[in-house]
Write a structure and sequence with these properties.
The chain folds into 2 domains: 5-166, 3-Layer(aba) Sandwich (Aminopeptidase); 171-258, Glutaredoxin (3-Layer(aba) Sandwich), CATH 3.40.30. It contains 7 helices and 13 strands. It has helices at 15-18, 30-42, 99-113, 133-137, 196-207, 219-223, 248-258; strands spanning 5-10, 48-54, 58-67, 75-76, 80-88, 118-123, 141-146, 150-156, 165-166, 181-185, 211-215, 232-236, 239-242. It has a 7-stranded mixed beta sheet with strand order 1-2-3-5-6-8-7, covered by helices on one side. A 4-stranded mixed beta sheet has the order 11-10-12-13, covered by helices on one side. A hairpin with a 2-residue loop joins strand 12 (232-236) and strand 13 (239-242). It is globular and about 55 Å long.
């Protein structure tokens, strides 16, 4: 780390001070309040968030991970440390400086100290998830894939341990969402709050659809999600039409194309 940058361990006592994922004002943002309460629930179970703080640039990144038993993704990863999120650089000047690598190293060290089998992560190119490049550079290997383009990677600390995998029943769980519009979300990702009410109103007003809104309140529910993103999905008549949070305008465009 440079003199300007330090890695801060967020705790239930200081998370409101630093914020998370770009949200800084708990009084103003329900997204942050939801995240803080979720964090307090899972912190005693091993959830950790390490924030990258710049003296001049403020909050510039984070890594979030927890024991795979509690992963909010539809994976079998018990015995592994599981990374939910990795992000560096709200400002470009903080990208490409090795900070993401340092955050991954901190996670791997925690997994070693707890004598875990390794570290696992789900990746995808595009919004809301890190792609696999940074993890491949750190010695991770792809061990499973899920539609449309999700990958499950692992860095093994015990070469004899069984590899993690996506839950076999994930795609089959779509059978529970065959009729109408369903939005599934979890406070693990604070962005799952934004735009949802507007989407529900648009579905009613413009498409005459009643929305079924499902809040995932625990790891078990997230692991039974039919979408590999784990903490958000929009499903229409058994089809996943968005695998991550989207704007109301994007939702309208998707539904117009469904006609």
């Amino acid at each position: 780390m440079t003199n300007d940058i330090e890695i801060i361990d967020l705790t239930p006592e200081n998370i409101a001070e630093y914020g998370v994922c770009g949200y800084k004002d708990a009084g103003k943002h329900k997204e942050l309040r939801n995240k803080i309460e979720w964090f307090k629930t899972y912190y005693p179970k091993g959830l950790r968030i390490k924030a990258l703080i710049s003296a001049k640039g403020g909050y510039q990144g984070m890594i979030e991970y927890l024991p795979g038993k509690y992963a909010h993704r539809p994976v079998n990863a018990d015995g592994y440390m599981f990374i939910h999120c990795l992000f560096v650089g709200f400002k470009n000047e903080f990208k490409g400086k090795g900070y993401a690598s340092a955050l991954i190293d901190a996670c791997i060290q925690d997994a070693k100290s707890q004598q875990m089998s390794g570290v696992a992560v789900v990746t995808r190119k595009g919004s809301f998830m890190a792609d696999n490049a940074i993890f491949m550079k750190k010695g991770f290997e792809i061990v499973d894939k899920a539609k449309p383009d999700f990958e499950l990677l692992v860095h093994k600390l015990d070469s004899q341990a069984e590899s993690p995998c996506f839950k076999q029943e994930m795609n089959g769980n779509l059978r529970f969402y065959q009729d109408g519009l369903t939005i599934i979300r979890s406070p693990q990702c604070p962005y799952t709050e934004k735009n949802v009410q507007a989407i529900i109103e648009t579905a009613t007003r413009k498409f005459n659809l009643k929305t079924r809104l499902i809040d995932l309140n625990d790891a078990e529910s997230a692991q039974n999600n039919p979408c590999a993103f784990g903490t958000f999905a929009i499903i229409f008549n058994g089809d996943i039409i968005s695998h991550h949070p989207i704007s109301n305008t994007r939702f309208e465009n998707i539904m117009n194309n469904k006609k």
